[in-house]
Amino acid sequence: MKIDSARFLADLHELRSFGASGVGKGVMRPAFSEADIAARRWLAGRMEEAGLRVAMDAMGNLFGLAEAPSLLLGSHADSQPEGGWLDGALGVVAALEVARASREAGGPAVSVVAFQDEEGRFGITTGSDVWSGNLTQKAVDPLRDHAGVSLEEARRGLADMVTGPVALAQFSGYIELHIEQGPSLDAAGEQIGVVSDIVGIRDMQITFGGQQNHAGTTPMALRRDAFQGVAAFTTQLEDALRNIVTPQSVWTIGHLELHPNATSIVPGKARLTLQWRDGDTERLARMEAEIRQTAQAVAQERGLTLTFGEMRGLEPVAMDRRLREALEMAAEDVAPGKWRLMSSGALHDATNVARQLPVAMLFVPSINGISHDFAEDTDEADLVAGVEVLARAVTTLGA
Amino acid sequence: MKIDSARFLADLHELRSFGASGVGKGVMRPAFSEADIAARRWLAGRMEEAGLRVAMDAMGNLFGLAEAPSLLLGSHADSQPEGGWLDGALGVVAALEVARASREAGGPAVSVVAFQDEEGRFGITTGSDVWSGNLTQKAVDPLRDHAGVSLEEARRGLADMVTGPVALAQFSGYIELHIEQGPSLDAAGEQIGVVSDIVGIRDMQITFGGQQNHAGTTPMALRRDAFQGVAAFTTQLEDALRNIVTPQSVWTIGHLELHPNATSIVPGKARLTLQWRDGDTERLARMEAEIRQTAQAVAQERGLTLTFGEMRGLEPVAMDRRLREALEMAAEDVAPGKWRLMSSGALHDATNVARQLPVAMLFVPSINGISHDFAEDTDEADLVAGVEVLARAVTTLGA
Predict the structure, then answer these.
(1) Do A267 and B251 touch (CB under 8 A)?
(2) In the predicted model, what is the mean pLDDT of chain A?
(3) Potential cystine with B345: which of A94, A216, A363, B35 (Cβ 3.0-4.6 Å)?
(4) Shortest Cα distance from B220 to chain A (angstroms)?
(5) How many CB atoms lie within 10 A of CB A153?
(6) Model confidence over B327-363: pLDDT tens digits?
(7) Beta bridge partners of B358
(8) DSSP B114-142
(9) Nearest-by-Cβ selection for A217 from B187, B222, B345
(10) Do residues B83 and B29 touch, judged by C-beta distance below 8 A?
(11) Rounded distance between C-alpha atoms, residue B203 and residue B276, angstroms
């Protein structure tokens, strides 16, 4: 098949116009916003023009269906409240171009999906989570966004497009092209990342409790300062984890609340959320053990109470070997010596779809690793390289 | 003179009834609240009954004046939004009792003051700050509380009581009895603290800037995590300061804001407020130098930007030697071997008054060091001991 890179880029820029922020190439197109609804109507038109049958489920996931059986390509079409033009959109428009080109060339049957609410207006990857059967529509309908709007209310804006459930059985596998959203490919001057696995995530609230006191009248020796405990825990953990992780492991304290968070009061409570990610379930568990031990040692040493919240998380997901190898071969053809096999540190719709179908993913570079930001961008040559790899893999795989 | 401890305690409990929280002995009597206004009207009546001339300045500071020259005794009558029954109130009612008893015994002339807004509804120790001439009424009138009410609006509730400015020159000195608001006397089983100095305070915002990143896709080695910087700074500072401080020095990180403070995002910015207190100006400066050096070293090591905010603060205030020695002699008479000379770690109205008059302070214990809390309390025997010390010192000093 022959990719029309001009047509692909023109469509990608046209999708960007729905919710364009007016700042650089930035986009504001959260799930079910006016911009998102308009974008889905436009995408449905493009799918029809490509000879695909348009379908939408109650959740607002938009499909352009080829005759069954087909490969399913795509990603999500919603954006962060203030996001970039490629996060999700790239995979959807690339899928459209490959489906179109394959149809024109009499190639394998390719269907397209634009998942809904990947960016978490209501949940996290909600659209693919419901479609892959992990959650029911009824279970997610009461979810509310920050403004108090429920998912059930929000999805009325797309009600006229809903055709009903879209069966999984018609698809032989799912491939998602996405921007890396990290700095590795860009820093190495590489064009393509073929994903080996999507890392697992663990997420736990940890609360240190001390004694709230007057910051002037309480001698240091008599204090039980919850924040000093957090600081000690954080620095000790940095050392402790370095011994058991790989360069692919990450951990983050992104959220912290002190109580009462007042200049003149010794903090009586400090609650942080610690998140850690790794491709290996065993290592995730070893990291957890180290985290608990370090926190307990600090709490004991400083006379603090310690509470661990519920541990939440997602298991690591290995990519399907057959799909992945087709991507590797195509990457070596399109970008010889300028691609790598790599973990995905971010969560994607592919994580959910993997419960039901063979899945694979490929990445193109994010300039300076920037994403979820108006400044998110990728060289157009790299965008086209990504579509080319996708097209070659489809040709290899057939339907 | 002869203190009437039953009358003193009865008045103290009656003052507690204005704004009583209904939880333990707790009080809710912020400056210019209905409870505060009612309390000032009641206090004015008690002053009159004691033969004092009632006066109030525009700021709402309430005076019961003896013939000039007189010693001025007192504290503040407002409370924290949710405070204790003794913080401020003790010093006012003790002053009333000593003025009354001295008058009855034909002793030295003693005037009484109940300062306004010590607890910071609008400013910090606003009443005594204006009375002592550091700020003008015009300058503080636009200050607003958390609900948006201005001081100018709030003080209308006391307008009918205002008699005009109250001259400083009529007073030979100021003595304030207060609860310790810290654990030292209670822990040592002592009854009286004679204050040697009120510590100086330094207060500085410190902002570490890093790179906001995706918590899944950014390798640890490429991160510039603002919170990891804060944690390293905090632990290194704990070690660094221990070498230059005394057991009376304190430092506190009570306030910290991460940005964007989201579980899945590497913090790009972290702003903390560091406060430190010591009785010695030199040591405060050495602590500042250590703080700046430690922060700079951490920022440099971790590739973070560093911004120091404006340094605010109050200088340490030494107590007047003559007044202090009168309190020491009286303490040894009333509580032989059960008193100490100590720094005040907390700010008091005496800090402001010291700009204009000789001042001294004495403390009684706070049970478990608790203050600014409904649970704040002191043994009645210790409250009475405090009044006795005050009365004896007044006798020694004369007017």
Answers:
(1) no
(2) 96
(3) A216
(4) 6
(5) 13
(6) 999 999 999 999 999 999 999 999 999 999 999 999 9
(7) none
(8) EES-TT-SSSSSHHHHHHTTSS-HHHHTT
(9) B345
(10) yes
(11) 7
Give the pLDDT band of residue A123 (cuts 50, 70, 90): confident
Task: Judge: A255–B266 Cβ closer than 8 Å, yes or no.
Answer: no
ipTM for this model: 0.84
Nearest CA in chain B to A221: B247
Min distance B45 CA to chain A CA atoms (Å): 34
Question: In this model, does residue A18 exceed pLDDT 80?
Answer: yes
- In this prediction, residues B54-76 reach a mean pLDDT of 97
For residue B231, what are its two tokens? Answer: 């944690």
What b/e string do you get for A113-142 counting C-beta neighbours within 10 Å, with b at 16 or more?
A: bbbbbbbbbbbebbbbbbbbeebeeeebbe
What is the enclosing helix (H) or strand (E) of A236?
helix A226-242
Across the interface, do B369 and A222 touch by the CB < 8 Å criterion? yes
Per residue in B164-186, pLDDT (tens digit) is 999 999 999 999 999 999 999 99
Contact: A225, B252; criterion CB under 8 Å: yes
CA distance A212 to A330: 61
In this predicted structure, the answer to whether residue B312 has a pLDDT above a threshold of 90 is: no
- Which residues of A fall within a CB distance of 8 Å from B369? 213-214, 217-218, 222
pLDDT tens, position by position, B361-379? 999 999 999 988 899 999 9
Residue A87: its chain B contacts at CB < 8 A?
none
- pTM: predicted TM-score of the whole model, two decimal places: 0.83
- Rounded Cα distance, A76 and A116, in Å: 6
Can you spell out the DSSP letters for A126-163? Answer: HHHHHHTTSS-HHHHTT-B-TTS-BHHHHGGGGGGG--
* Pairing, β A359-364 against β A171-179: parallel
Distance in angstroms (rounded) separating the CA atoms of residues A71 and A1:
15
Number of Cα atoms under 13 Å in the Cβ half of residue B294? 22
Q: Which residue has the tokens 């059930």?
A: A152
Contact A395, A1 (CB under 8 A): yes
Q: Shortest Cα distance from A50 to chain B (angstroms)?
A: 34
